[in-house]
Amino acid sequence: MEKAISNLVAEYGLNDSDGKPLRINISRLRKTFANRIFELTDGDLATTAAALGNTPRVAEQNYLAPSADTRRNCSSW
To answer: Bridge-partner residues for 15, per DSSP?
Structure first.
């Protein structure tokens, strides 16, 4: 699986904000999945939580809350 991820990152030139190859892991993909489901359902927290197999509270706190990087980046605007 690691080789497949490395190939995907290289093939599409996926880089982080520092220009380094993007590090993809399951937790990052899960958060992306959660945010995309939330977006597709027009902010339906119950549906998003069900898709994740979590309660709405867990989904909101762990997957939909802005990350520390997001908060830091937004505070510098």
So the answer is: 21
Average of per-residue pLDDT across 6-14:
93
Q: What is the pLDDT of residue 27?
A: 82
CB atoms within 10 A of CB 50: 15
Residue 49 token pair = 């939580």
Q: Is residue 2 part of a domain?
A: no
pLDDT for 58 beyond 70:
yes
3-state secondary structure at position 39: helix
Task: Print the domain residue range for 52.
Answer: 25-67
- Give yes or no for a contact between 36 and 27, defined as CB atoms under 8 angstroms apart: no
Residue 13 is assigned to a structural domain of this protein:
no
Number of folded domains that form the chain:
1
Q: Three-state DSSP class for 21?
A: strand
